[in-house]
Amino acid sequence: MTMSGPYTVKVEEARQATGNKPSAGPVYRCIYAKDGLLECPAALESPWQFLSDTAKRIPNSPLLGRRKLTDEKGGPYIWLTYQEVYETAMRFGSAIRSRGVNPGQRCGIYGSNCPEWIIAMEACTSQAITYVPLYDTLGANAVEFIINHAEVSIAFVQENKIPAILSCLPRCSSNLKTIVSFAKISSTQKKEAEELGGSLDGELPLKKKTDICTIMYTSGTTGEPKGVVLTNEVIMTEVLSIDQLFEITDKGRSEEDTYFSFLPLAHIYDQTMENYCIYKGCSIGFWRGDVRYLMDDIQELKPTIFCGVPRVYDRIYTGISNKIASGGLLSKKVYEFAYNYKLSYLEKGLPQEKAAPRLDNYVFSKIRQALGGRLQVMLSGAAPLPMHVEEFLRVTSGTPITQGYGLTESCGGCFTSLANVFPMMGTVGVPITTIEARLESVPEMGYDALSSMPRGEICLRGTTLFSGYYKRPDITKEVVVDGWFHTGDIGEWQPNGAMKIIDRKKNIFKLSQGEYIWVYGNSFESFLVAVVVPDKKALEDWAANHLPEAVDYKSLCKNLKARKYILDELNSTGQKHKLRGFEMLKAVYLEPTPFDIERDLVTPTFKLKRPQLLKYYQNQIDELYSEAKEPKV
């Protein structure tokens, strides 16, 4: 066994191409798993034990909290204790069984993040019932498809989702028999429910590691949603790996910690973190569901653990940067000095808390307070975090930020950068302690897993991978080959053993002159065009200095001079990054409305849905190609 950089070990040699199998690079593990991948202890059978054990240990500690709202104004957080959540979940679980839903059958959960979502999840796990998140952002008729495909017989539904569930009920009635509302109920209804649910002393069904805990339908970019099957063992082992890495590289979390829940609970990223928090005895506070009040909710909750996606971190960066830019000359000079001073010490290897503690207190304290003032952990996933945003957060937040990579099929994170390891910036880090990884060559795209800078498709093997796609052995066989899950993402090993995501296998197309580009382009054309959502303030500031007449934002997006300005800015950036001629844009369409979930243009984690974007903007794309080929007068 030999080292590959300071943070990974090689456990298998490379494989040369044979027959129709492409070559593959060596197999690597995280240094902390050098003696073997983390496995689930024999004593653990189900994630239900996380809640039941913690409720016994700290019954009166707060678990689930939401803000009290008065006339839409946010008040303090109101909390349910571990004991209260445990008892409610037990009653809910018993009530589910009374409706004829037995262990192994499926229960849907449909709604945004709130205490009831977690209680419904725990009620299912208490009875060995498989829970199935329902969400309508997977496209038209997705809820109907999931209910029928997974044979969901009972569903917990948030009150604002009840009309949607009722609208598809006629086509789901052969499966869905019971709908339970999240809404507050009267004392009479509560008494009836408790009678229906029976006592808390009822014997719970036996649970096994191999039981299916959840079937989670993916927000894939093409075709029908795929049901990812995750067992009890996989979810528990993922949680234990998160805990192990916190303990080794930073510090373990405890009942002193508070987690801010706002990323969709229907997705594996937030769900895994909330399971981890329950295991450790942390508190979980939910946002009120309105992005306008996101920072206000953070200010009130003062979380110590924050999980975000790049789009959220970019908004935080932009908001704070604008405030700094609008300050006086002296304050800007002081900030620039402090920023560069601390950055230099981070680059020298000093940990966050030792790089510049006085500057943290006197210069960056307001930025830390904007994030609640108590943050100790920031995690980023779901898409690449821009380097300048990651650097900014590392320098100014007073908190280590780690970027990770994962999929529903890997039960969330399968790679993570390590806290306070500054050279991992811009990467997704090393495999977690349950995963080993290798790259497989993609010769048609020019990626060679055996080159001096290994590049290829990321393939995973380990103890936290899915069991397959529900009722779809055909597509399971397409992505799981010889025990290796093929992610479809292109990675590049770094000298220190970290992985960098550089491309996506399925989103590549070939231009007429034979070059591969990862942006939109018609395969029968020799140049690229783009749909761009411009920054409103930047475009309006430009217009104030370059257009004689006042023009509103939507009209600006149609203005030929504004379009040329954006096109020139993008190509100028491309030239700075040494893009080649065929990688430059010939024409752009300016879209005033950001790509959103409502129009089915992005996934719930804000990844672009390319086929849907093409369909939506097909007319504009066609016009751009025609316009770009017109002879210039």
Chart the SSEs and their pairings.
Blueprint lengths: L1 E2 L4 E5 L14 E4 L17 H10 L4 E9 L2 E9 H17 L7 E5 L4 H12 L3 E5 L7 H9 L1 E6 L4 H7 L9 E4 L5 H11 L14 E6 L9 E5 H18 L8 E4 L6 H13 L2 E4 L7 H8 L3 E4 L1 H16 L3 H19 L4 H4 L1 H6 L2 H6 L6 E4 L6 H10 L4 E7 L4 E5 L13 E2 L3 E6 L14 E8 L10 H7 E2 L2 E10 L5 E6 L4 E2 L5 E2 L10 E5 L3 H11 L6 H4 L3 H17 L8 E6 L19 H7 L1 H12 L4
Parallel strand pairs: 4-13, 6-7, 6-8, 8-9, 12-13, 12-14, 14-15, 15-16, 26-27
Antiparallel strand pairs: 1-2, 2-3, 3-19, 4-5, 10-11, 16-17, 17-18, 19-20, 20-22, 21-22, 22-23, 24-25
Helix pairs in contact: 1-2, 1-8, 2-3, 2-6, 7-8, 10-15, 11-15
Overview of this protein structure:
Mean pLDDT is 87; it is low at 507-517. The chain folds into three domains: 2-40 and 292-507, 3-Layer(aba) Sandwich (Rossmann fold), CATH 3.40.50; 48-66 and 75-291, ANL, N-terminal domain (Rossmann fold, 3-Layer(aba) Sandwich); 510-629, no CATH class. Helix 15 (387-396) links the parallel strand 15 and strand 16. The radius of gyration is 26 Å and the shape is globular. It has a nine-stranded mixed beta sheet, sandwiched between helices. Strands 1, 2, 3, 19, 20, 21, 22 and 23 form an eight-stranded antiparallel beta sheet that branches. A four-stranded parallel beta sheet has the order 7-6-8-9, sandwiched between helices. The longest helix is centred in the middle third of the chain and has 19 residues, at 329-347. With 633 residues, the protein is α/β, with parallel strands linked by helices.
Mass-distribution shape = globular
Number of strands: 27
Largest sheet: 9 strands, mixed
Which CATH class of the largest domain? Alpha Beta
Residue-averaged pLDDT, rounded? 87
- Can you count the helices? 21
